[in-house]
Amino acid sequence: MLKFENVSKRYQETGEVLRDVSFHLRRGELAFLTGHSGAGKSTLLKLIAVMERCNKGQIFLDGENLSHAREKHIPYLRRKMGFIYQDYKLLQDRTVFDNVALPLVIAGYGHQEVARKVRAVLDKVGLTGKEKKFPRALSGGEQQRVGIARAVVNKPPMIIADEPTGNLDPDLSAEIMRLFESYQQMGVTVLIASHDISLISRMNHRLLKLDHGQLVVS
Ligand SMILES: Nc1ncnc2c1ncn2[C@@H]1O[C@H](COP(=O)(O)OP(=O)(O)OP(=O)(O)O)[C@@H](O)[C@H]1O
């Protein structure tokens, strides 16, 4: 599903921040991406999102070569990925329903189809009945569920999460992880960047570890 082949990334200001990174995540696999601050985790996620381009090597997502993607093709590639962030990145002036509906509206779905899909995903993440609430009226765990619902409502084959439990206590973090595992069990490929060693060690999943830009565990 996701393949890195000898990928290196250099920023003009910082120099090489990823060096010769190779790994293969298969469909339906869940892996943590970890490493010290500055190890290159966010950069690796930005390469997958095609927000940055690698200088060497190749990246394949679902058989497509991201490293050679043309600018106008990038929005289509991004529909294959659902992104989840530590700070949720919800629109504060929109309801839960509207936040989750946004990717569907952008993709051009009709009103009824949007409503059906949003209700189904809110049910799946345990937020039925909260459609009309605004993000500030929700707990951190609930806001992250909205973030997850928005990321998966289009049914992307891959979920990419950057420190998704960084603002949550251990119980809520475990709940959010169970949600990720349930998507993995449906065949979605999940990559989670996290510093949370205790959470990672409690869960029996593959670990990708970066150290100064090199993949030292894969
Ligand atoms: N846009 C950029 N331009 C120049 N240097 C950058 C840029 N983004 C990141 N870097 C540098 O690349 C290195 C890796 O940063 P990155 O954010 O990928 O690490 P990280 O593992 O995600 O760290 P953290 O856990 O602190 O978020 C750091 O030295 C950082 O300063």
From TrEMBL:
InterPro entries: AAA+_ATPase, ABC_transporter-like_ATP-bd, ABC_transporter-like_CS, ABC_transpr_LolD-like, Cell_div_FtsE, P-loop_NTPase. Its main location: membrane. It comes from Methylovulum psychrotolerans. Keywords: ATP-binding, Cell cycle, Cell division, Cell membrane, Membrane, Nucleotide-binding. This is Cell division ATP-binding protein FtsE. Residues 2-217 form the ABC transporter domain. Part of the ABC transporter FtsEX involved in cellular division. Important for assembly or stability of the septal ring. SMART domains: AAA (SM00382). GO terms for molecular function: ATP binding; ATP hydrolysis activity; transmembrane transporter activity.
